[in-house]
């Protein structure tokens, strides 16, 4: 793990998101704050820093200067790899919140899975949990409220709406698993 990785992540995310995408930046800050709160349940201090770093960078691919394909998990992970950020963080960003399903709908699943390993771990579950229970302005949501909010923003039949429909069951499972196993606050 890179020394000072979480501090570097915060600096990058603020630089790339705060002015051009202030609403996205509010969401990211709240996801990262929640990750910081729940990170204490992880046994390894390296995993705690990894979780917070991935949380603050999970939507970095939305930044106009980074977006290339229009699929933020892949764009963000590629950019992180290019700036030699930690490989595990790049993989967590690439695969956060079941991104492989949306990648498939966009015809980018081979690139996503071929370039970045999907980590199945407590860290990955906690990252999904933090993202799925945080609204677009940083408010705390249940996973049901979060999915309803996303559906309101996208037309039925759109790629994102289809992704949400296909992934909802897994989203609820991950959130329940986290809440049952770890009882985060």
Topology, pairings included?
Layout: H1 5-17, H2 22-38, H3 45-57, H4 72-82, H5 87-94, H6 99-106, H7 109-115, H8 122-132, H9 143-153, H10 159-182
Helix pairs in contact: 1-3, 2-3, 2-8, 3-5, 3-8, 4-5, 6-7, 6-10, 8-10, 9-10
Number of helix segments? 10
Q: Please trace the helix and strand order, writing H or E for each element.
A: HHHHHHHHHH
Overall pLDDT level: 95
User: What is the CA-based Rg, rounded?
Assistant: 15 Å
Give the end-to-end Cα distance, rounded to a whole number of Å: 27 Å
The helix-and-strand class reads mainly alpha
> How many β strands by DSSP?
0
- Poorly predicted segments: none
Envelope shape: globular
Helix content: 55-70%
**Percent of residues in β-strands:** under 5%
Major pleated sheet: none
Question: What does the model show?
Answer:
The protein is mostly helical and 185 residues long. The two termini are 27 Å apart. Helix 9 packs antiparallel against helix 10. The mean pLDDT is 95. The protein has helices at 5-17, 22-38, 45-57, 72-82, 87-94, 99-106, 109-115, 122-132, 143-153, 159-182. The chain contains ten helices and no strands.
Give a quick set of tags describing it.
185 residues; mainly alpha; 66% helix
Please outline what is shown here.
The protein has 185 residues and is mostly helical.
